[in-house]
Specification:
Ferredoxins are iron-sulfur proteins that transfer electrons in a wide variety of metabolic reactions. With 372 residues, the chain is of the alpha/beta class. It has two domains: 310 residues, Rossmann fold (3-Layer(aba) Sandwich), CATH 3.40.50; 52 residues, 2-Layer Sandwich (Alpha-Beta Plaits).
C-alpha cells in the first residue's frame, strides 16, 4: 500500500507567523481545500474538555478550521456526543454548559455547537459494519451521521484504557451514542447502584423491553431481557445506573476502530492532531497532570491511521518531562522508555487499534512525514 502523507509543523512562532496562522497554513498544505465544502453540512468532531481539565484544545484552534471551511462555502458546526460516565457532559444541556465554560461558543469559534446524540444520548443512527469482527451495527450520534463531511480535531494525549487518545479514539468512541459507548466499553449490561437508587421508576418507564422492575424501592435489571441500549443510564437523575466496564483493552480498541469505520465510510473526511499538553489521561478527567513530554507540534492528514502513527512515533522520540507521571513510572521500572504510552499505562496496547484500523481498510500505518 502506498504511504499516506502526514503534514507536520512545530510549535515555534514568530512575530510574522503565530500558531493559529501556522495551523491554517498546515491544513491548506495538507489539502483540506481539495474537499468540496460548498453547501455541505460539515461536522468538526472535537472534545470540549471536562471542566476542571485545562489540557483540552483551546477554541481558537477550532475557529481557524471553521473559518477555512466557511470560506469554502461549508455549513460547519462543532460536535461531540454525550458521555457514558457520570460527569458534566452526560446530557446535552450540561454538555453545552461545559463547552461554554471552556470557551466554546459561536462567538469564539464562529460556528454553532450541536451535541451529536441529542438531549439524553439516545438520538442515534444504526450503521452496518460489514467488516466488523466485534461490531456488526454501530450506534452513532445522529447529527454526526447527518453531516456530509467529517473533520476531526484531536488533542493527542495519554489514555488509561487505550494507551493514547488520537484521531481514531476521538472519532470512534467520541461519535458513539450512549448505547454505542456502552457497546465499546462493555461485554455486559448495565447494573444498579443500590445505595444511590431511590426507586423513582424513571428507568422502568423508559425501558422498552420490560427489563427493569422496582422492589423495596430499589430498581433491578433483568439481564435476560436487557438489550444494552443505555437509556436507563441517561434518564436516571441520581446516577444510580452504571455501565459495565468489562471489555478487554484489545477488544475495546478493535471496537473503536470499527466505529471509526462506520463514521468515515462513504463520505469525505480530514484529520488534524495537536500533540501538545500531552497529559497521562483523557480530557474526560476533571483534572490534567503535568505533560509527559514537551509539546511536539500540529499534524494533518486525510488518513487517520497514518496520522495516529506519526503522532505516536514523534511522541515516543521526545524526551520525558522531569516530574511527570511518566518520569515516576520509568524511575520505578528502572529502565528507559521505548514506548511512552505503554510505560505510562502498561495494561494497554495502543497498537491493537491502529493495526485493526489498517486491517479493515480505514488507512495505513505507513506514512511520509512532510514538514511545513
Amino acid at each position: 500500500m502506498e504511504k499516506s502523507k502526514v503534514y507536520f509543523t512545530n510549535m515555534r512562532a514568530t512575530g510574522n507567523m503565530n500558531l493559529l496562522q501556522k495551523l491554517e497554513r498546515l491544513v491548506k498544505k495538507a489539502g483540506i481545500e481539495q474537499i468540496d465544502f460548498k453547501g455541505k453540512y460539515t461536522a468538526i468532531k472535537i472534545h470540549f474538555g471536562e471542566p476542571g481539565n485545562l489540557a483540552y484544545l483551546r477554541p481558537n484552534y477550532a475557529k481557524v478550521i471553521a473559518d477555512v471551511i466557511k470560506k469554502q462555502g461549508g455549513k460547519v458546526f462543532l460536535t461531540d456526543c454525550n458521555t457514558l460516565y457520570v460527569g458534566r457532559r452526560k446530557d446535552a444541556l450540561e454538555h453545552m454548559d461545559a463547552a461554554y465554560e471552556n470557551g466554546y461558543n459561536p462567538f469564539t469559534t464562529g460556528c454553532q455547537i450541536i451535541i451529536g446524540d441529542g438531549l439524553k444520548g439516545t438520538d442515534e443512527a444504526y450503521v452496518p459494519v460489514p467488516c466488523g469482527e466485534c461490531v456488526k451495527e454501530a450506534k452513532i450520534g445522529r447529527a454526526v451521521m447527518d453531516a456530509d463531511i467529517l473533520i476531526s480535531m484531536n488533542h493527542f494525549k495519554g489514555h488509561e484504557l487505550t494507551g493514547f487518545g488520537g484521531s481514531l479514539k476521538n472519532i470512534g468512541m467520541g461519535s458513539g451514542s450512549r448505547a454505542g459507548k456502552m457497546e465499546m466499553h462493555s461485554d455486559g449490561k448495565p447494573r444498579v447502584r443500590a445505595k444511590a437508587c431511590v426507586g423513582c421508576g424513571a428507568c422502568v418507564k423508559i425501558c422498552a423491553h420490560s427489563a427493569i422492575s422496582i422492589t423495596d424501592k430499589k430498581a433491578s435489571i433483568d439481564h435476560n431481557k436487557c438489550v444494552g441500549c443505555g437509556r436507563c443510564i441517561g434518564v436516571c437523575h441520581f446516577d444510580a445506573i452504571a455501565a459495565a466496564w468489562d471489555a478487554s483493552n484489545d477488544v475495546l480498541n478493535k471496537k473503536i476502530a470499527e466505529y471509526t469505520w462506520a463514521v468515515l465510510n462513504g463520505r469525505p473526511h480530514f484529520h488534524i492532531s495537536l500533540v501538545i499538553d500531552v497529559s497521562p489521561n483523557c480530557d474526560c478527567h476533571a483534572e490534567n497532570d503535568v505533560p509527559l513530554i514537551p509539546d511536539i507540534g500540529m499534524f494533518a492528514s486525510f488518513d487517520p491511521v497514518a496520522l495516529d502513527m506519526a503522532c505516536a512515533d514523534m511522541a515516543n522520540q521526545a524526551p520525558v518531562v522531569s516530574g511527570s507521571y511518566l518520569a515516576e513510572r520509568l524511575e520505578q521500572q528502572k529502565q528507559p522508555a521505548k514506548d511512552h504510552f505503554y510505560a505510562t499505562h502498561p495494561e494497554t496496547n495502543w497498537m491493537s487499534c491502529v493495526d485493526h484500523a489498517e486491517k479493515i481498510g480505514i488507512g495505513t500505518k505507513a506514512y511520509e512525514l512532510i514538514e511545513i
